[in-house]
Structures are given as structure tokens and as C-alpha cells.
Amino acid sequence: MAAKKATAKNALALSKEQFKDSIVKHLRSTLGTDEARANNQAWWKATCSAVNELVFDRLTETSKANAENDSRAVHYLSLEFLMGRLTVNNLHNVGVFDAARDALTDLGKDINDICDEEPDMALGNGGLGRLAACFIDSLATLNYPAVGYGIHYEHGLFRQEIQGGRQIERPDSWREYGNPWEICRPESIQEVPLYGYVETVFGEDGKMRKVWHAGRQIKGVPWDIPVVGYEAKTVNVLRLWESKAADFFDWDVFNAGGYVDSQAEKSQAEAVSKVLYPNDESEQGKELRLIQQYFFCACSLKDIIRRYKRNHTDFSQFSKQAVIQLNDTHPTVAIPELMRILIDEEGLVWDDAWKICSETFAYTNHTLLPEALEKWAVYLFEKVLPRHLEIIYEINRRFLEDEVEAKWPGNDEMKRHLSIIEEGETRMVRMAFLCVVTCFKTNGVAAMHSELVKQDLFPEFCELWPERFENVTNGVTPRRWLLACNEELASMYTDLVGDQWPRDLTLLSKANEFADDAKFQKKFMDIKHTKKVQLAKVIKDLCDVEVDPNAIFDIQIKRLHEYKRQHLNVLHILALYRRLLENPNYEMNKRVFIFGAKAAPGYKLAKDIIYAINKIADKVNNDERIQGKLKVVFLPNYRVTLAEKLFPAADVSEQISTAGYEASGTGNMKFALNGALTLGTLDGANVEIAEEVGDENVFIFGLNCDEVKALKAAGYNPWDYYYGNPELKAVLDWLETDYFTPGAPGELASIKQSLLEGGDPYLCLADFASYSEAHIAVDKMYSDKKGWARKAIINSASVGKFNSDRSIEDYVDRIWHLEKVMPN
């Protein structure tokens, strides 16, 4: 009997024949082609259109129900939504995956080939965007009223190519040929003011008010992407704003021969939504980035207020109907923008406007790195958003005089320390401080991170308002990160526990009862081997490297940053390579180290690390002396679609950030859910994963958070570790030679320099020995096939806590206080 897959019950299911008829209808009537002439992209768009017949109907019903109920809703503001592909996800959530697969088969098409036509939605960079995508999936699945707001990037971050081992950035034109999942909503276009000056005027009643005379206007055009909840009862909206010029074409200039100049305003306006995170090393880049943040916040707030005014004539109920969640500091400018709207446009007095603001906004902190807490130069605010700077000054004045003075009377140093305006050679607006001062809740994203937010990042604010600080541990959606990306394991779990586990991931804990069962172990590990075989083919296709699926697949995939310590991983790979060269009989299981990461275009050391990985891979992978025991792979253009192939195939999950630096991580959860064992520090959500699966089923190494602080306080000297560990010294010295870069000695030396002359800020050398010992333990355990299988099963079955549905319920309970709305 064939295994049953979990699929959405009571969804808007179609039979195979109905779905087939719908696809053919859309091929002909929507796309103007037929079965004989259509290419795979046309087949994909026709399949999407067939699904959309169901999705858009539910979208309308959801919007209608929320409007009729006048529901309190969460508005999730995020500069990133890393959605990946939606076809397979939506087919599962609507409950028509099997019908679509069988219909396409009858039509002579393979559903995998058709779905591969879909480009990833390039709407994010890393974990922040993947988390936001999981959260809006869960909000729809749980039937909570919600709207996601972001930017409709034309190019997203960038498409990464590797040339000569180096990262090359190329435009990621993800919607070059249109996107069948999105709908333009011109009826909801917004106008956004910029620049200009502020005038103080007095009315006939003698009251003073401020008038912002903008120097420029740009237009925000909304594009809606339906967010389909599991079982498709609720379909919420992700609304993305595209920037356009308000008056985009100058006929007089064009007719006078200024063909390029006539397009100037159009080009400047469209640049705002052109690319995710414009490089802010230049003044123009900084200005564009601030405009980008304000643009999406202003559009979103106008849209929220428009919806509110459908049922309300004043703002007395606004904070009861709307909660606005700021996903990191990027949307912080929404705070002074709402104050501006309420005071300057709606006529509220300051105290009433401030009460609404402080009851409406909540803030999620995602980083403990001081350099990642956004600051904007005062002069830039003054130029681009002059009225907002006045409002921020007034918020700060009242905060310092009313709150700080009351708590620490006469303490000017404390006022300076807590001021939203940072004094210095260039005065800066501290956006995180503005969030904490305004928002009714500030939350971290893992238990350890939330404690560090209170203790290290905002201790004085926590002393002022301890009740404002919360923890909500992150989660991932099992619909995408198991059901859609690991069909074989999903089917196995459905056979074991039924088809409701995509809603309730804790149901998988039943598999723990079978962790020692030989048949269950074999089935589980056979699936793992299948996914490794599939990944090996991807590696061959993308990198032309042959890897053995029987080897340990050790994977580190995340944004390239020093604190995530990809270079620590590199040092250990070099150590293994040296051991094999010195002793060809060195006992170890075959190892394949797999990386996927993008480096920010202006981050030189991160790009140097990518170059080092690729040059080391060239040498190691072609060195016959080591008999294929060690392979290194860097997969280009890491994105959600590639991640969906990597997580199910991993044996070892590398989560090796310096303790106290990673807020949470969500890759660690996806790896564990798919049966990989965590090799990591006690950092972020690693701590909670170890608690759930058991310390004996993970490989923990390195200094803990307190030890990191103590070592730094005592005066960390990386040279001590360099001279104290001959193997470590040898591999670091290797980087200065031309062994990996023939004819170009020192091309990899910047890594050594950062770790020695640069002071090794993330303690790679201090953790190297412990990391190396943890890898020896991994190798030893992998030789025990039954023992490894047991640990892999326990990891997969024990991470039910890390369902993003649970995260959302925590947000609802602790912060948002929403009620479910069930559409008809």
C-alpha cells in the first residue's frame, strides 16, 4: 500500500480531471497558447492560474470576514520576506498537490520540471526574511487577521556567481517575465513626500501647527501576494510597495531633445524599490536607504489608516484595532511618521498621539551586534525628513525630562547614555533606542537572546520598564520545511502519526518510541541517503564536483559574516587536510563540507572567505593523495530553493557562531527537523534545541556566553593560541603561501591577518581546539550507524516546539492579543 502524504483537509480540492481541465483552459484563454505549443513556463503559469481560481476566492472571503468583524489585526512591517517559490507550497496548502501532479502527468508533463520554472521571490537576504515568510504562513494557517508589508524589489539582493573563486554580484531579475501569484492594486496607490522644509503656522484660534512642504513626491504602487494558510481556510495578504515617480515623464524636456533627462525623475523614484539594501558606503547610498525605509513605512501606515477609517470616524479605537510589529529596526521611521500623521494631518494633540503610538507599536530585536543597530546621521534626517527629525527631538526631550530624570535625577551622564540622539562628531539618531522608548513591547527571538537584550543591550531601559520586555523563540513552518521539501520523510511521518502533524508538529514525538527500532531506523536513514543522492546531483550540476552520498554531509548555510564563523570551519578543514597529507592512513569517515552564503558587496573579508573556500576546494577536491576522503563545496547563489535541497540531505548542521552573538537562528531548526545533528556553540536557539533533543544528541563545543565575556574582559590575545597550538599555527601560516593560489602568495592572508593583527574579535582561535575535538566526536559517532540513526530520529521527532505556529501563538498571547476570524 502506498504511503499517505499529509495534505490539507477540507481544503478547496479539485479532482485530477477538474484540475486538468483548468490548466488547459488557462493555457488557452489566459496565456493564448495550447498544449502542443506551450513551453514549460507557460505550463507553470497555467498551473498557477488554476490554483489561483481557488486562492483568490478565499482571499476575497478572508478580506470580507475581517472587514465585517472589524477585527483587530497585526501589521507585520519587514524589509525582507524571503518567500522562495510558492507553487509547491500553495498546492499543498490548498490540498491539490496530488491532483496537480496527476493532471500534469496525464498531460505529458512532470510536476517537478514545471515547478522548477518558478524563480525565487528575491525579497530578502537571510534569516530575517525567512522568518518573516514563516510567520505570515503561520498567521494565515492559524486564521489570525494579518497583513505583511514590505517592498516590491525589482532585483532583490543579487544573484551570486562565482568566477575564479570570487563572488560576483549580478542583478536578480526574479519577475522579468511576470509573477502569476501577485496582483497590482492601483486603487490603493499612496503618495509619499520627501525633502522640503517645515513651516510653523498659527491658526485663527492661536494654536501653532507644523506644515511640511515637501520638495518631492513619489508614488507607492501596491502589489498583493496571497498568503495561503494550511487547509486554505484563511488567505491573508503580503502587500509589497513599488516606487514610481508621481509625474514620471516630462514631455517638454523630451520634445526639446532631452530624451535622457526627461526620464530622470522616473529613474530616481524607481531606484527606491530597485534593490534590497542599497550599498550605504556612499552618501548617496545612505540617502537612498533611508528613503527606502521611509517609503515603505509611509505607504504602509497610510494603508493601515485607510483600512481603519472604513469603520471608524476618529482615532479613539486605533490602537485597539491595529498592532504594528516592527521586524528589526528597519521600519522604525514608522514611529515618527504615525506621530506626524496624527498631529499634523488628523489634528490630535501630542499626548493623545503619543498614547496611540505607544500602544500600537511593538519591536522585535534581532541582533546583539552594536554595529547592526541602525543609526542615521541627524543631517541626513534633516535633509530627507525634516518634520520627522523635529518629532524625534520632541520624543527624546520628553523621554529624558519625564522618564530618565524621574528615575535618575540630576544624572546628565545617564541622559547622554540613553538619549535617542547620540552626540559626537556626527550626531546620530539611534533607531533601536527610538523603538524601545516608544514600543509597548520589545522582544528577543530566543530565550538566551532575550536575556542578553535585557542584561547587555538595553539594561537601563529594562530597569525603567521591565514589563515591556518579552521573549518569543523563533520557529519555522513545517509546511515548507518538511512537507514540501522532504516528501519522503513527510510521507513516513504521515504513516506513523496521521496527517495533522503539519499543524501540530509535536505529534512527531511519537517517532521517539521507534528511535531504536531497526526497521524504522533503516527507513529513516534510507530517506536521508535518497536526499543525499539528490543533493550530490545538484552539486555535480552546479559545481562539477563528484561527492559520495555515503560520506558525512556537513553543511553550513547562512549569511557570510565573521560572527557566524565560516572561517573557523575553514581552519578545521585545513587541519583535516594536513592530517591526511601527513598520514595517508589517517582514520576518518569520508567528509563533504558544504557551504552556501552570500557576502554583502562591500564586506571585503566576507568575500575573501568565500574566495578562500573556493581556492581550498580546488586544491582538496583534486588531490589524489587523500583518496577522496575530503571534499569541499561552495554552492553559488544560496537561496530558499537551494536550501530546500540542503536541509533534508544534511548529516551535520554547523551552528558555530560565537556564544552571545547569534540572536536565534532558524536554519538550526530546519536542519534538526530533517534529521541532522547540530554541531554548535551554546548560542541563540541552539541552547533550546539541546534542551529539547537532549545534550547527548547534539555536539556542543566552545566557550559559553559568560566565558566569552570573561575572556574578553581579561584581555584576549589570539597570538597565545597561535603559538600554543602547532596545528593551528601551521594552517594559519599556510594561508600566507601560494599553496592554494599558485603564483599568488598571500592571496588568502587577509583571514590570518584578521585573526591575529585584527584581534580575532569572534574568538575563532580560542574555540578552535574544542571545535576540532567536537568534529572527532562526530566522526566517531557516525561510525556507529545505529547510534547515529537513533540521534537523527530523536532530533527530527523532538523539535515540535520550533513550529512557527507556536511562535505566533506566543506573539498573540504575550504581545498582539488577536482573535481568530474564520471566513465563510
From TrEMBL:
PROSITE patterns: PHOSPHORYLASE (PS00102). The keyword Transferase applies. It catalyses: [(1->4)-alpha-D-glucosyl](n) + phosphate = [(1->4)-alpha-D-glucosyl](n-1) + alpha-D-glucose 1-phosphate. Its cofactor is pyridoxal 5'-phosphate. InterPro entries: Glycg_phsphrylas, Glyco_trans_35, Pyridoxal_P_attach_site. Keywords: Carbohydrate metabolism, Glycosyltransferase, Pyridoxal phosphate, Transferase. SUPFAM superfamilies: UDP-Glycosyltransferase/glycogen phosphorylase (SSF53756). Its EC number is 2.4.1.1. Pfam families: Phosphorylase. CDD domains: GT35_Glycogen_Phosphorylase (cd04300). The keyword Glycosyltransferase applies. Belongs to the glycogen phosphorylase family. Allosteric enzyme that catalyzes the rate-limiting step in glycogen catabolism, the phosphorolytic cleavage of glycogen to produce glucose-1-phosphate, and plays a central role in maintaining cellular and organismal glucose homeostasis. This is Alpha-1,4 glucan phosphorylase. It comes from Agarivorans gilvus.
